[in-house]
Structure formats: structure tokens, C-alpha cells
Amino acid sequence: MGDDPGFDRSRVAAPSERRERSGEVLLGIIASLMRESQPGQARLATPRLDSRLDRDLGFDSLARVELLLRIERAFDVRLSEHLLGAAETPGDLLRAILAGTPRTIEPARAAPVVLAPAEAEAPEGASTLVEVLEWHVERHPDRTHLVILGEEDGPGETVTYAQLRTEALAVAAGLGRRGVGAGQAVAIMLPTGRDFFRAFLGIVLAGAIPVPIYPPARWTQIEEHVRRQARILDNCRAVLLVTIAEGKRIARMLQGLVPSLADVATAGDLSGAEAAAPLPRPRASDIAFLQYTSGSTGDPKGVVLTHANLLANIRPMARTVGAGPSDVFVSWLPLYHDMGLIGAWMGGLYCAFPLVVMPPTAFLNRPSRWLRAIQRYRATLSAGPNFAYEICATRVDERDLEGLDLSSWRIAFNGAEPVSPGTLERFTKRFGRYGLRPEALTPVYGLAECAVGLAFPPLGRGPRVDRVRRAPLMSTGDAVAAQEGETDVLRFVGCGAPLAGHDIRIVGADGRELPERSEGRVEFRGPSATSGYYRNPGKTRELFDGDWLDTGDLGYVAGEDLFVTSRAKDVIIRGGQHVHPYELEEAIGNLAGVRKGCVAVFGVPDPATGTEKVVVVAETRLLPGPAREALRASVAATAHALLGAPVDEVVVAGPHTVLKTSSGKIRRAASREAYLRGLGGKREPAAWRGLARFAVSFAVARLRRWLRRAGDFAYAAYLWGAAALLGAAATCATLLPARPRWRALHGLARAMAGASGLPLAVHGLENMPTTGPAVIVVNHASYIDSPVLLAVLPRPARFVAKRELGRIPLARFVLRAAGAVYVERFDPERGAADERVLVDLVRAGEAVVFFAEGTFTRAPGLMPFHMGAFVAAAEAGAPVVPVALRGTRSVLRGDQWLPRRGAIHVAIGAPRRADGTDWAAAARLRDAVRSDILAACGEPDLAARPSLTAPPT
Asked: Using CA atoms, how far apart are residues 416 and 662, in angstroms rounded to an integer?
């Protein structure tokens, strides 16, 4: 960067001289950037004023960011963002330079823009987007809802709730006049701006279904772009396309490609007279819009999202992050993408926080505008995919950050693509000196099939990075935590726990749920889960696994966090080892000469070995010859160092070889197909030794996996068999008097613990009173909790059980043998009587065991405690002994009957006593005991997580 040519304005006299000199300098900057990307290369394409930036010179959107920085620094001008974004050749850039204005820096500490007072509420009772909008219009019609920034710097265009509703009603009336009926699809292909918002809501108000599709990168290419989108328009059977005026000329062509399409119109065309008939009222179960997933043009997958789905996602997200009217959200995210459309706009529509929105090109052309907008509007919320944070951390000129203040930014969401620990570290380091708090960085996980959000970390925690040993994860899928000093590790970023009302599980190849720190397919369920893909029953069937939905991602759970490791369909299994593309692609992308972000790693079937070959395709601007061959060898060496074995083929090709989605993600499956069609040219077969080695290793790995599965089933059969035998012995023990019966059951439980082979560690046994009254409070995680306690407790104890269990014959028999006491949960009078019985038992000197949560779930987490145990302890003046169970949930989850091996830990805490006999004293005792158990059980605090019914904070 330091050797870029400069530009001395004083030496330029005539306009022709200035143009000639500026052209030379510009081409020098471009050539310098190319040389820097490929150091030491002799053969490079020579840039000319008529060269195509993308096709000839290989400049993608990220390369344009760097080019902009160098041009503005060299010429000391500020370029028009519109001209820069539309530029197709260096000649176009030259015209932008000559029309540019002197470069200025935004004044430090510019006065913030106050958008709206904080007083407002969220429409908790609304069931549709229409009701949400009407609720706000009725209460604060003049409240600022949107501030729309343009391509260039300047004051934004403000839109209130009332204005948006009025304009949307006009669009709805126009749709009615054109014969658009309820339930029909209307596509929207508009840039970020006022027209998009009024068109979207106008379609909803008309009872139709909005279908946002992404606009072309340059509107001069709209015809070619729409041809690529025709399959989406045909799949949703769109009857109308709303676009800009320039797009109307393609109507006839589109009607030939999409038989259902009756018209193409602008938002202005649709706005006019009043509605001729009353507008329909959408129901919560109606489709709110169709979200077509990235890269779906070949086989369109339109995610069906109802109004109920959207609000079931927006509400818990808002409560989890504490979003409310005092927040301000700044977004450059595309409105055809779920994070920008639902997370930013609909989140603001619901929560009443103002949304400051700018076109995506404004960020891509000048990333510092995102950060400046956060400062200017004192934004508290903003979001972006990982690459946006990487650009800001590494590409933005320090001069553009002068006076920047990010202290207002309380949550910086990072999602939509794999989150890099290195990016988080670099972003935090660079912008910490500009007021950014490290805990503001918030990695999240979501997908269109769950509206937008699925997993969020605790508010204000900051990123959690897990270091796991590479070898176990790649060979067996075990995410073994690495120790300090270990270097052969992989790093993954935690995305938090599922939103309230939602659930996540990890399943293996056999469809069974896996324990913690085991990698498998990530599946989810919840109220915001889609019902499927629009008019695509085949893909819908592939999406569902019973009532669970397959995310298509691989990951594992540790503690309360989901760690996503890779896309399931992208994982390569070679010789039984899992090869994850992301890390290898990132490492190769960092090599000199390789276009960063333009590397695809995928597997292709190899019939000779029955496994997969690992293929690397890397883009370069180098011309074919010795330099490219040297780069190929460097790529192969890097891959060998990471995998510990050679890859099967390295293809080094020119720009735009690696296929990507509209949002810039690598399309590995499509790149694989291109490779199989001959992308790599003639391919030599691997040496027979390599084939033999791979075949043997694959066979060994398959045998190892088969033995592991067989061992799991054999262990489960053995364990249930042992339980049946010991259960029969326990049946005989019920005939004994109370104390001998307890000793017999205690001995049988200990025998079962020994026979199971499960390591059982007990800590704090000295804290358990051996005589006198005691209330023993335990967390509840599994069906095996009671047998574990029977094996551990050193004294007789009565178990408290919900009365429903007494109606199940087998459960009633076992509980009676253990001297259980039933309590009623639903009849207040009977429940009060049961409570008196418990108080009397404690006063009589007995030990009573309470599972204070009342029930348990398959997902980890400590639920709120019921008060019964603590009221009984306070009234009887008895000590409460906290007991924390850890590991029982992983051995046998609530919805499974196949036990797994795992260690069990029992921690017995110091007894606590109430400081009084009233309800308040019992509540304080409950909180103290729950805090002890929470600290020892190692599970997340579900009581601290917002519920679906709790009001937003």
C-alpha cells in the first residue's frame, strides 16, 4: 500500500492533461494492488481503461473496498458512491475521480441525532404484522419508525408509523385495482428505500404474499439478472413484480418465462386512489411472506413463514436482548435477507425502536459509513455477517475513523455465516480504543427455516471461544476440550442457547440424539419453525425429521452453547476422517497469490476406494505458467500441513471459477458439480499406494464406528437387563419393614451403580445430616436421578413425587417401595393438605427429598424452583441440604430410553436454614439454595432466560 503512486494536483493544467495523468495514476494503483496480491509474479494481466473490473481484473466487492481506499488516498478526493458501485471499468472509475470532491473527514464527536423519545410499548397482544402496525399507529402515529439513508452522505429520509401505513394502504388499493387477490404472490425486486417498505406492507395489507428477491448489483444488468430469478418467480407463481421504472421494460420477456406473471409495476404505479373494497384481515396462520434461501435459483426453496412464525421469533429475540423503544438499530443488511428484513426491520416495527437503514452498497463502497452512522445516531444495536466485521477490522483507513465513538453500541450481532474467532479478536482490538466494549460482540445463530434467530448467548457475556483437539473431532466427532499449551486445535465460537420456546438437539448418523461435546447434525423445533418450502414437497420432506427440522449444519453443544462446526453436506469423509472445509479454505485464502474468500474445498466420490477425494479449487489472478504451478504447490503444502495427509487434487484457476450465492457464500455443491463436469481438466489417478492407504483407513474407520454403535446397543441392553434383575430384588425388599427396606434399596442401588460401569463421584457427603429432620433439595435432569440418590444418600429419606405418577402402575409400585409421598399440583385445596403432611414429616425428624423444579426436560438448564420444600423447611425449622446432580441428563435424556456411558457427579452442599417462618423467609431460602445448586450443576440458568410470556425488559 505504501508504494501507491501519488497525485499532485498543482502539476495538472489542462483538463486533457489532467485526464491523461489521472488515468496513468489510476492504472498504476490497480496494477500495484494486483502485484501486491501476487508478489513476485512476472506475468500479470495489464489493466487498461476499458478492462472489465470483474471479468478481466478479478475485482470482487471486497477488492473494490481496498481499491476505493487507495484511490481516495492517492487523489485526495471523495468519490461518489453511486458511480463507484456502478463502475464496470477503470474508465468508469476515472470519470468518478474527475467528478470527485476534495476528501474530508467527518468532524470528531459530531452532535448525535435524537430520533424519538423512549416512551413506547410493544404490542404483546398482536397476532399479525398488520395488527402490529395498527397498534403503533393508534398510540404514537408520529413516532419515527425509519430513517432511510441514501448512497451518499447527507440527512436521512424520515418515515413515521402513520406515514408508512398511509402509503402502504395506497399500494394495497393499487394491487386491488390490478386484480391481485388474497393469497397470491407478489414479488419485490427493489433497492433499499421507501418504496420497498411501503410495497411490502401494502402487499400484506392486500392479503397477498410478498416475495422479496435480491436486486441486481447494477441495474444496467437487470434483464440478465431477472432471467436468473425466473425460476423463483415461477415457483411462487408470482402474479406481479414490483420493481424500479427501468425494470418495466422486461415485462414481456418475463411473461414468457413466468406464465403466472400478469404485470410489472413500480410502487408509484400502485399508489393512487382509495381501495375499491374493504381490505382482508390476515390471520396469524396466514403466510406473511416467502423467504427464498441463498443460492436457490437452481432449485428454488421458498421458506413459508406465517405471521405467527414471525412474531414467535421476534418476541423472544427482543426479550433475550432487552430490545425496546430506547434502542436505535443501524442496518445496511439487504432487505431480501432474513437478518435485514426480520431481525432489523420487523424487529423495529414490533419493538418501536427507530431503524436507520442504508443500502448494502453504501457499506461495501465505504465500510466506515456503517460505523459513522452508529456514532451519529447513537445506535445501540447493529448486525452483520462475519465478513463485515473483518473488513472493518482490517481494511478501513485509520483516517476515516478519526473521532469515531462507538460507546453507544451495546449489541453487535454477528451471524448469517461462520463466525471467526480471529475476526472477533481483531475487531475488538482495533475498535476498543473507539469506545467499543468487548462484551458488545454477540455471535448468534439462525436460519431462514426458523424465521431468522434460533440461538443467542446471554446478554452482555461477550464471545465464548471453545478450543477442541483436532484429531478426536475429525476422527470420531468428539469435541474434546484442549488443554492450555496444546497447539493442534480447532477453535469454534459459541452461539448461545435456543430462544425461549425453541429447542435444539444434536443427532448422529443413526438418528439418535448425541450427548454433550459430540458432533452431529443440528436439529431444532419451535413455534417459529417453518411448515416447509413453498410448492416443493420433496425438499420439505428432506427438511423434517419427525417434528424436528434439520438445519443442514453440524455442531455440538457444550454447557449452554451451541457450537456450529460446518455444513453437514459440506463435510468430507475421507478414510473415516471428517475434513471441514472452512478452516482449510481460510488458510489457503491467506496465501499470497490466492484470491481471499475465493477458495472451495469439497469431496467427490471415489469408486476405487469407496470414500471421498478431497479437492481444493483456489482462484488466482496469475496467468497459467510457472508462477501458477508454484502457487499450486504452495496450496498443496498448506493443505497437507493442516490435514496431515495430501489432498487428492488442487485446481488453481482464474477469477470467478468458485461459484457463490447472491450473498457471497461459497457454493460448494455447485462447485463440486462444475469440477465433475471437467473444471479441473484431465485428472491423473492417485498412486496405488495412496489408494490402498485410503481404502484401509476407511475400512478401519467404518469398522470402528460400527463397533461403537454395536457397543452402544449392547451396553443399553445389558443395563436394562441388570435393572430388571435388581428391580425384581427390590420387589422382594418392599416386604421388609421401613429401615431394613431402605438399607436393601440403598444396597441394590449401589450394586446397580457398580454394575452400570458409570463413574460415580460424590463430593460433600459430610454435609448431609445423618439424623434429625432434613429437607434435601435436588435438581432434576433424568429418570435415573432417584436411583442415583438412593445409592448416594447415607440415611433413609422419603421422596416427594407428583400425584400423576401414582396413577402409573409400575411407577406407583416403585415409588411405594421407596416410601414416596405424593403432592397435588393442580387442586389448591388438596395441594395445601399435602403440604401439611410434608411439614409434619419433617417435624417428625424425617429426611424428605424434593426435586424442586417439579419436572425435567431433555435440554440442559436449571428451571425455577417451586416453593413447597422451602415453606416446609421454614415452618418446621429444618435445614435444607442442596444437592446438585451433574451428568445424569447425558446418560439418559428425558425423551430417550437408550442410556449412554458418562460420568455422574453428586455435589452435596452445606445445609442452609430459613431466617424466619413466613413466606418471604422461605423465598430467600429458595434463592440461596438454588444459587448453590446452579453453581454446582454446571447447567445454564433457565430462570434468568426471558420466557415467552414475560414482558420485555
From this structure: 13
Between CA 724 and CA 926 the distance in angstroms is 37
CATH 3.40.50.720 fits 464-569, yes or no: no
Sole residue written with cell 483516517: 399
Per-position DSSP letters for 259-292, written without gaps between them: TT--EEE-HHHH--SPPSSPPP---TTSEEEEEE
Q: State phi, psi for 177 to the nearest 5 degrees.
A: -65, -30
Alpha carbons 573 and 611: distance in angstroms, whole number: 7
- State the burial class of residue 585 (Cβ atoms within 10 Å of its Cβ: 0-12, 13-18, 19+): buried
Confirm if 472 and 515 have CB atoms less than 8 A apart: no
- Grouping H, G, I as helix, E, B as strand and the rest as coil, residue 723 is helix
Q: Which residue has the cell 450394586?
A: 751
Name the CATH topology of 9-102: 1.10.1200
Report pLDDT digits (tens) over 382-434.
999 888 898 899 888 888 898 999 999 999 999 888 888 988 999 999 999 99
What is the C-alpha separation between 699 and 693, in angstroms, rounded?
10
Any residues with CB less than 8 A from the CB of 544 and at least 6 apart, and which? 532, 550
Average pLDDT over residues 545-561: 91
Residue extents of the structural domains in the chain: 9-102, 129-450, 464-569, 572-686, 714-944
Residues 6 or more apart whose CB falls under 8 angstroms from that of 354 comprise 115, 116, 144, 145, 146, 147, 328, 329, 348, 377
Q: What is the pLDDT of residue 852?
A: 83
Which residue type does 855 have? T
State the amino acid at position 336 in one-letter form: Y
- Host H or E run for residue 551: strand 548-558
Collapse the DSSP code of 593 into the 3-class scheme (helix H, G, I; strand E, B; otherwise coil) and give the result. coil
Q: Is the Cβ–Cβ distance between 519 and 290 less than 8 Å?
A: no
Residue 475 is given by DSSP the state: H
CA atoms of 845 and 808, how far apart (whole Å)? 30
719 and 897 in contact (C-beta within 8 Å)?
no
* H-state helical runs in 184-322: 194-205, 222-235, 251-257, 267-270, 307-321
SS3 459: coil
Q: Name the 3-class secondary structure at 375.
A: helix
**Residues pairing with 802 in the sheet:** 823
The CATH number that domain 714-944 falls under is 3.40.1130.10
To 10 degrees, the CA torsion angle through 587, 592, 594, 600?
-10
Confirm if 145 and 137 have CB atoms less than 8 A apart.
Answer: no
H-helix or E-strand spanning residue 672: helix 668-674
At 471, the amino acid letter reads A
Q: What is the pLDDT of residues 842-880, one digit of tens each?
A: 888 888 888 888 777 777 778 888 888 888 888 888 899
The owner of cell 464527536 is: 109
Contacts of 867 (CB under 8 A, 6+ apart): 919, 922, 923, 926
Q: What does the alpha-carbon distance between residue 477 and residue 500 come to, in Å, rounded to a whole number?
A: 28
- CATH topology for 572-686 is GMP Synthetase; Chain A, domain 3 (3.30.300)
Coarse DSSP helix, strand, coil percentages of the chain, rounded to the nearest 5 percent? 40, 20, 40
Q: How many CB atoms lie within 10 A of CB 754?
A: 12
Helix (H) or strand (E) holding 638: helix 626-643
CB 730 within 8 A of CB 874: no
Q: In 691-725, which positions are buried (b, 16+ CB within 10 angstroms) versus exposed (e)?
A: eeebbebbeebeeebeeeeeebeebbeebeeebee
In the 8-state DSSP scheme, what is residue 455? E
Identify which of 147, 498, 353, 229 has the alpha carbon closest to the alpha carbon of residue 952. Answer: 353
Specify the fold of 129-450: Rossmann fold (3.40.50)
